[in-house]
């Protein structure tokens, strides 16, 4: 497999807008279906959401998906049918395993300020597992200037939270202008510029909302040209691949 970098600009994303929601979709989602843009590796959803004050997603079902939520600004209230409830804020990583079936709601915890978050879905290793939930706070100093493993199912690679996928891990970093990190090596990588502006070796400049889908690549140097926040998925298999 030849190394390849597929740049996806922020402006090309499909957008769902309602009176209370602006949701920008990196992949096909809901009414926005493109058969040529359904996933990369095992990542099926990368939604960049802004929810208005005092509103949100009412109770709705999911199944057989690992759902990771990373709040950029504001506070997001979570409640689910297996008894978990709480508020997610910047630096608090959250994973919900929908498994055999779960109901949950996600609502803006503020009546005055919007909440901005990125929600990412990856396929689990097996269907029908027991639904589950995990969250863990990551110190802001740990995220400063380096990639930190937020969630991982890769054996031997611990993350703040666990994933039910042995071939996937999510890393994050908050960079000051001039800071740089190296991307991990993997058959599939997804680099998302969640905030700010960066430049990526071999790719060029990326602005907020831009993404790069790497195939059989890694090790590239990513530098911040202004304060930035990165979300990087490291994936060692693709959707539907059979394990040996």
If you had to describe this structure to a student in words, what would you say it looks like?
The protein is mainly β and 244 residues long. It is built from one helix and 20 strands. The mean pLDDT is 95. The chain has a single domain (4-235), classed as Jelly Rolls, CATH 2.60.120. 2% of the residues lie in helices and 55% in strands. It has one helix at 140-143; strands at 4-8, 14-17, 21-25, 43-51, 56-62, 66-73, 76-80, 85-88, 92-97, 102-108, 115-122, 132-137, 148-152, 161-162, 168-175, 180-182, 186-200, 204-207, 211-217, 221-235. The radius of gyration is 17 Å and the shape is globular. Strands 1, 13, 14, 15, 16, 17, 18, 19 and 20 form a nine-stranded mixed beta sheet that branches. It has a seven-stranded antiparallel beta sheet with strand order 2-3-4-11-6-9-12, with no helix packed on it. The chain starts with a strand and ends in a 9-residue tail after the last strand.
Give me the CATH superfamily.
Answer: Jelly Rolls
Judging from the principal axes of the Cα atoms, what is the shape? globular
**CATH architectural type:** Sandwich
Uncertain runs with pLDDT below 50, 5 residues or more? none
Distance between the termini: 19 Å
- Structural classification: mainly beta
CATH class: Mainly Beta
Helical residue percent band: under 10%
- What percent of residues are in strands? over 45%
- The overall number of domains is 1
Using the coordinates shown, work out and report the CATH topology: Jelly Rolls
Q: Characterize the biggest β-sheet.
A: 9 strands, mixed
Pfam families: Pirin
Cofactor: Fe cation
Protein name: Quercetin 2,3-dioxygenase
Domain Pirin N-terminal: 12-122
């Amino acid at each position: 497999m030849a190394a390849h970098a597929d740049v996806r600009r922020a402006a090309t994303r499909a957008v769902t807008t309602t009176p209370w929601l602006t949701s920008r979709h990196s992949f096909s989602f809901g009414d926005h279906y493109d058969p040529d843009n359904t996933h990369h590796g095992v990542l099926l959803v990368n939604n960049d959401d802004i929810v208005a004050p005092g509103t949100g997603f009412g109770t709705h079902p999911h199944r057989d998906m690992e759902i990771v939520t990373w709040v950029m600004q504001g506070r997001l209230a979570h409640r689910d049918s297996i008894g978990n409830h709480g508020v997610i804020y910047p630096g608090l990583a959250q994973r919900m395993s929908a498994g055999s079936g779960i109901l949950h709601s996600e609502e803006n915890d503020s009546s005055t300020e919007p909440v901005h978050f990125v929600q990412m879905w990856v396929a689990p290793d097996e269907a029908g597992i027991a639904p589950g939930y995990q969250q863990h706070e990551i110190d802001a100093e740990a995220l400063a200037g380096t990639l930190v493993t937020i969630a991982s199912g890769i054996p031997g690679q611990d993350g703040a939270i666990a994933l039910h996928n042995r071939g996937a891990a999510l890393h994050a970093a908050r960079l000051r202008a001039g800071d740089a990190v190296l991307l991990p090596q993997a058959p599939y990588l997804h680099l998302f510029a969640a905030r700010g502006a960066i430049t990526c070796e071999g790719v060029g400049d990326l602005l907020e909302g831009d993404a790069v889908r790497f195939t059989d690549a890694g090790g590239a140097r990513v530098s911040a040209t202004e304060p930035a926040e990165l979300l990087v998925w490291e994936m060692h298999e693709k959707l539907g691949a059979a394990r040996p």
